[in-house]
TrEMBL record:
Protein's job: Acts as a component of the essential kinetochore-associated NDC80 complex, which is required for chromosome segregation and spindle checkpoint activity.
InterPro entries with a match to the protein in the record: Ndc80_Spc24 (IPR013252)
The protein, known as: Kinetochore protein Spc24
One BP annotation, GO: cell division
Quaternary structure and interacting proteins, as annotated: Component of the NDC80 complex.
Lineage: Eukaryota, Amoebozoa, Evosea, Variosea, Cavosteliida
Subcellular location field: Nucleus; Chromosome, Centromere, Kinetochore
């Protein structure tokens, strides 16, 4: 097995784990943002309806108090007609808001259903990812046994590890920079260590 294959397998294993983690986090965050947005809209509409109803009640009370005073019959009838028109508008607004609330509830139900479906898919995707990772780890262990190379993860983008020779109990540490060495130089260096 060449170092090229080992490097590709290691890169594949890391990329698979990274992509799965990012995808799950992205999906969960999108669902949570959508639920929060809908909840905010629902609360805003509810607050508007409550404020509108309070204002209407205050107007009705004020109109009732004013109507207690004696006023000409025509003015009283005009006021009652205006109040009836306003009442109709308020009822229309309430009906409209109730319809909007029902629509928002439908959207929330759909989101919850989608969230449940996503939650159901996550264990299967984790299982598949775990299988792929297990296969990659098994292959890496096989290569480690063949070459006696043990890789050490680091954040410096360096190829780091050590080669152990059981017959001499010798441990040779290496740290190679792919930015400074060619692929051929890295392979030659590792074969010399194994050699």
């Amino acid at each position: 097995m060449s170092m090229d294959n080992l490097s590709r397998i290691d890169d594949l294993w890391r990329e698979t784990r990274k992509q799965f983690t990012q995808e799950c986090a992205s999906r969960a965050a999108a669902v949570e943002r959508t639920i929060a947005d809908i909840d905010g809209i629902h609360k805003q509409k509810e607050a508007q309806a409550i404020a509108f109803i309070k204002e209407f009640k205050a107007r009705v009370q004020k109109a009732q108090q004013e109507s207690i005073r004696r006023e000409p019959q025509e003015a009283h009838e005009r006021r009652m007609q205006d109040m009836e028109k306003e009442k109709t508008k308020v009822l229309e607004n309430i009906n409209s808001m109730e319809a909007q609330i029902k629509e928002l509830q439908k959207v929330m139900d759909e989101i919850e259903k989608s969230q449940a479906q996503l939650a159901a898919k996550i264990p299967e995707e984790q299982k598949q990812s775990t299988k792929a990772i297990s296969k990659t780890e098994a292959l890496l262990n096989f290569y480690t046994l063949l070459t006696s190379i043990t890789w050490v993860e680091n954040n410096d983008h360096l190829l780091t590890g050590y080669v152990t020779r059981e017959e001499t109990q010798d441990v040779k540490h290496f740290e190679l920079d792919p930015a400074k060495l060619t692929r051929g130089e890295i392979i030659d260096h590792l074969w010399n260590l194994i050699g």
